[in-house]
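Human: If only I could read backbone structure tokens as easily as an amino acid sequence. Underneath my words sits a plain record pairing an amino acid chain with its backbone structure tokens. Take your time, and here it is.
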Amino acid sequence: MQVACLGIMVADVVARPVVDLPARGRLTLVEQMELHTGGCATNTGISLSKLGVDTAVLGAVGADGFGDFVVSRLMEHGIDSRGVRRKSGVNTSATMVMVDPDGERRFLHYLGANAKLSEDDVDFDVVGEARILHIAGALVMPGIDGEPTARVLRKAKKMGLTTAFDTVWDARGNWMKLVEPCLPYIDVMLPSLAEARMIAGRQKPEEIADLFMSYGVSIVGLKMGEEGSYLRSKDRELYLPPFVVRAVDATGAGDAYVAGFLTGLLQEWDLEKTGRFANAVGALCVTAIGATTGIRPLAETLEFMEETPVREVRR
């Protein structure tokens, strides 16, 4: 196994296009409504599998239909699901995803079983078989966020794994309080720019990277949406522009970027190629409805990367 993704697992109900929400007691029609897997651990795991990376997903779902659906999709993609815990008395986490005509999204989210995931649920026999442990979706797992996640990361590093870390928007505002204990044990930090600003309390990517690296983070990758991405290591600093595609649904684009980045690390590419490949995987993600539908195999993604123009971004 190459990557173990530990984090949130979600069932996504995706509707598009959503122009206006219906008035109270009224109904509005949409052109498409579909059920997809969601959540950072599931999305990143499936994207990695589609890129040819042997992957395990660890997390929690309920003993319900949505949970059955999510686990069955993992199995369909050949993903190791031994580390998925079925929680009684709580439903599987779910998100209603409302996609605007331009591909941007709005969400209604239910924490569900993700809130019950604990440090004791982490199967280190599964983790120990991987080369990378990726924390996928920190800040919305109250049973494991903060110090418990830091202990999991510390143990993984002692076991010889590379550690990676991604976040989601924290509606409760705990940002640095929960992330700071983890930073000394993170090798690769991959949040969105908006989330990184909230964590670091700084605005410029360079300043954010300085802060994270002062704790010992080796590589910082900031996802910047239509502005591409920013990368920083000990030796290099890069702004990489986005690829030009027609956006249909941006759901999962950040997780796709992470999958591409982790793939580049496993391939031992240099920072620039790794970042460009991550941008390419993220770009392909937005070309189809659902968090992983648009992901292509490694060879096809490399072809896309070489053939597709990028949009120049003024700085």
User: Anything to note?
Assistant: The two ends are 40 Å apart (CA to CA). The CA atoms of residues 16 and 32 lie 5 Å apart. The chain is about 30% helix and 25% strand. The first strand starts at residue 3 and ends at 7.
